[in-house]
Amino acid sequence: MLKKAVIPAAGLGTRLLPITKELPKEMLPIVALMKNGQPCLKPMLQAIFEQLYDVGFREFAFIVGRGKRAIEDHFLPDEDFIQHLKNQNKKDLADDLQEFYNKINSSNLVFINQPKPKGFGDAVGRAALFTGNEKFLMQAGDDLIISRNNNHLKRATETFEKYNADTLFLIEEVPDPRNYGVITGEEIKPGIFKVTNIVEKPKKPPSNLAIVALYIFKPVIYKAISEVKPDKNGEIQLADALKLLVEWNRKVYGLKLNPTERRVDIGTAESYLAMLKSMVMGK
User: Fold this and answer.
1) Tens of pLDDT along 180-230?
2) CATH number, domain at 176?
3) Cis preceding-peptide flag for 115 (omega within 30 of 0)
4) What range does the domain containing 232 cover?
5) Could you tell me if residue 275 is left (phi over 0), alpha (psi between -120 and 50 degrees) or otherwise beta?
6) What total number of domains does the chain contain?
7) Angle of helix 91-105 relative to helix 79-87, nearest 10 degrees?
8) 3-state secondary structure of 148
């Protein structure tokens, strides 16, 4: 059974400037509903944490870097503020915030520093002391999947266990995969692919199957990351580590999102705007 979740949130978010100059992109709001059915604005990272909590995770490692102090502050319960809301007769807001704080208080949270933005692979590699020899789930702090009853997480863990995978990640069909990690593979069952190759942001994509930043790993991922050479920007890319696992004939699988599951992407201004429109329109 998976116990530990790693959430990288150390990226600079340059594609969302100027708002991300001081505000971490993972703290940008999405539209959510309070218990009373009223809409509210909730940080993406909080939504991811709550989703993982609701399926049973209680141990979390957030990978953070310079300029991410707002993340640590947000995950530090403020009981005085709860009382202030109650004094202002804002009970619904107080109750919703208290529920979030209850989840924090019943979890173990650690914050791991990535001193310099040296790539997604480097960020994941810094979780080794936290995960040890255990398998773990890793989800990027700016990539949310919406599904009924968090079914995508249940499908992912079940598929990972069934095939005794070394690595499993979610994939989706996209019209233009050039800005993603793209896979090719053998579809061994509907929606389940045995991965045969991975290409990061290809100019000529070999397929339209793009990697969604939710993964389940065995510790072998750390060995692969340690052997990846920095790219031209001096960064360690996770896609290169995944490609090594494929070359080592390790069991790497992609699980396709089904039609009832939706990815919420806030990586660019265009995708963020599209996300807000879809949530407002209920699509």
Assistant:
1) 788 899 999 999 999 999 988 888 888 889 999 899 999 999 999 999 998
2) 3.90.550.10
3) no
4) 4-281
5) alpha
6) 1
7) 160
8) helix
